[in-house]
Structures are given as C-alpha cells and as structure tokens.
Amino acid sequence: MDTVAVMKSLVALFMMAIALGMDAFSVGMGMGMISLRLRQIFKIGLTIGVFHVIMPLAGMFIGVILSAHFGKVALFAGGVLLILLGAQMIFFSFQKEAGPIVQPIGLGLIIFAVSVSLDSFSVGLSLGIYGARVWATVVMFGAVSMVMTWLGLLLGRKFQKLFGSYSEVLGGCILFAFGIKLLLSM
C-alpha cells in the first residue's frame, strides 16, 4: 500500500474516531455537571478510552456473523442506559440529602463507559467485515474518545460552576436526550 493510500485510510479512521467520540464528548459534558474532581475526570476519560479500544476490537473479531443482529441491540442498550443515567441525575438533583444512585466510579463508571462505547462495538463489527487495520483503528478510537471525554467533562465542569444547582438537571437532560436520540436512530 502506498503512502497516499495509507494517509487516506488514517484520515478516514480519524474522522470515524471523531464521530464515535462525539457521543463520549456529549455524555461527558452532561456527566461533568455533577461535582467531579480532576482525578475522577482523568479516570473517567481513561476508562472510556479503554472501552473504545475493547469494544471495537471485540466487534472486529466477532465480525461478519453477528453484525446484522448486534447493531440494533447495541444501540438499544446504549440508549436505555443513557436514559436511566439521565433520569436518575434529574431525579436526585431535586433531593438535597441523597446523592445519585449511579456515580461515575466503580460499577457506575463501567456502566457509563459501556453506554458510550456500544456504538464502537457496532462500528467494529462493520470494520471487521471490511478488514480494516485493527490496531490503528482501535488505538485511534481509544485515544480520540479519551481526549473528547476529557474535553466534555471539563466543559461540563465549567457549566456546573456557572449554573450551580441547576447543572445536574441540565446534565441529566443531556444524557436523557442523547439516550432518546440513540433509540430513535434505530
């Protein structure tokens, strides 16, 4: 493969990585509106980056057999998870003494990471069919989504300071709306 073809393929993968990272950015912005420390933001971005490596890698290896069936299931599961996360953020923002059920730590972080990386699993299934460069693809997906998550979380954190107590409601609405968008795109 000549240099021009390699560059074109890397640019195409980068554009796809940005498209996949946009959901991590959007959801990160919503999640960033709850009080998070910089250490938590770092861990969240790193975890989402890792899941954006694991999920398309798994999708590429599963490939042709499941691509027709899993694409819609992944979108449905991701949409439902985001709706639930958004709804619980909205609900618990009105209760001062109780915190949200799902926080972006431990199992909550895994749920959060899975919900925003399910679309990369579907893309991985498709790329597996076309024989894309596996490692270049997954490293680019992981790196771009990690950076975009950090940007979203930091921007959400700024909005949280600006909007105060209303920021959790706004963040929950963003997650909820993004979940509905995923469900409607099926």
Automatic annotation (TrEMBL):
InterPro entries: Mntp/YtaF (IPR003810), Put_MntP (IPR022929). Pfam families: Mntp. It is found in: Cell membrane. Its main location: membrane. One of its GO terms (cellular component) is plasma membrane. Keywords: Cell membrane, Ion transport, Manganese, Membrane, Transmembrane, Transmembrane helix, Transport. The chain crosses the membrane at residues 12-34, 46-67, 73-94, 106-129, 135-156, 163-184. GO terms for molecular function: manganese ion transmembrane transporter activity. It is a multi-pass membrane protein. Belongs to the MntP (TC 9.B.29) family. Probably functions as a manganese efflux pump. This is Putative manganese efflux pump MntP. It comes from Pullulanibacillus pueri. The gene is mntP.
